[in-house]
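As agreed, record minuted below.
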Amino acid sequence: MIEQKSSPHDPPPGLRPVRGTARCAVVALALAGAAWLVRAVWHIRLAVAGEPASGPPDQGGGVHRPLNALEDSYHLVSSVGAGVTAVCAIAFLFWLDRVRDNAKALSGANPRYGYGWLWFGWVVPVANLWIPRGVVADVHRSVFPERRLPAVVNWWWGLWLAGLAGGVGIIYADDTDEVIARAYHGVLPLLAADLVIVAAAGAAALMVHMLTTAQREHIAGKGY
């Protein structure tokens, strides 16, 4: 039996390619940002058009009047935007899964948060205020343990939390017809939330690029 010895340049077990998933995540984030810009345009269009004489779409008591053409198109814009955002979330999480695995292989240490937190840390109340950022921070520390976390990570996380706040951002507390009524009577909070989410998508795309590049350069520098 021939014993095979590992070469000093053999990669640590668990290293996974990340370039493709990073590109997919950046493209998905760009599309999500564009979708929210389109939503902002429709909010402005609704505000400029003004509420019809027949009142808001949801008239109360379970009564909904027929939608006009602009309101109907907003429903379409909202549905497409929600679909694009869902695809973006999946692409981002697949990227984060890969760079997290690589971080574990490079550092030789278990991450602070277990695998389940990668997926459920976004939806568990209270814990979702810091765990996703902590997962990203672990990725950075695996490459540069002595350096401070890049500012773009904090910008991304702050903008993401702002987009969740107030029930007018990423997760609306109201249904689409109620959001239309908001646009008629108070569009500025909606526009502010839209712009925050677009900025969060941009910061996330920059973060994905920076962390992926740093990790790939670190791996290449080790001769793997």
Remarks:
- Residues 69-107 form the longest helix (39 residues).
- Confidence is low (pLDDT under 50) at residues 1-8.
